[in-house]
Write the structure tokens for this entry.
Amino acid sequence: MRILIFRKGIKHDAKHLRRRFTQASLTFIVEYRGQGMFNNILLVLLFFVTCLSNVLHGAEDSSDAPEYARDPKTVFKAAESYEHALQVWKTPEEITAWIAANFSYDMARATRFSETLIAKQGPLAIYTPSEFFATKSGVCIDLSRFAVETLRAIDPQTDPRYILIEFNPIQIGGNIFRRHWLGSFKRNGKTYFFADSKRPGFIDGPYNDTPEFIHEYERYRNRKIVSFREVGSFQKHQRTPALKLKAPEKR
């Protein structure tokens, strides 16, 4: 949708203010020309279309779905099966390359994992790594399980772990979401983070520790992080104390 507003009878060389708002498929263009009440009307309209744009796109931006489309042209080591992948993949970079080229986010499954539907219908089984390799789709916890368990199998010295993040809750389509999963590993005394459904083909690091990453991630997601956990299994997170996010020390 494209909106262009101007006042008739104003010369083309008149002073005007032009603002452009572009989000996804929506583009709003408003031109201010002339003075007085007409400008006030335009300011109200500008406020309206800006709010409309935020409503239409805010929920999508806050979800755990990828911020960019997968790239099937990404170079990766192909494998005929998950068992074959365990033989040919050697590093987290090779796991991540396969994810970048193949992973699709399952929005319907994500809705089923909302706190609202889990409370009504009960928990849902997490894909095993072999199931994930076959379907090539899922949600954040499916992706993180695949990456963490695969890296443990091919390079256990990297100490792969799960990161469970708890955001302030949001509602998408009437369903409540707050938890997000990704993976981590260590290399040369530093910590790296990967298998994030928001940016599935990306390895973030190095970081000195997980709290340092969490502060950066909160800014990146533009969502308040209430707490986080570093856990060895996605099945045991309820028994692990959550770490509250603290403000970084001023230097």
Summary: Residues 37-62 form the longest helix (26 residues).
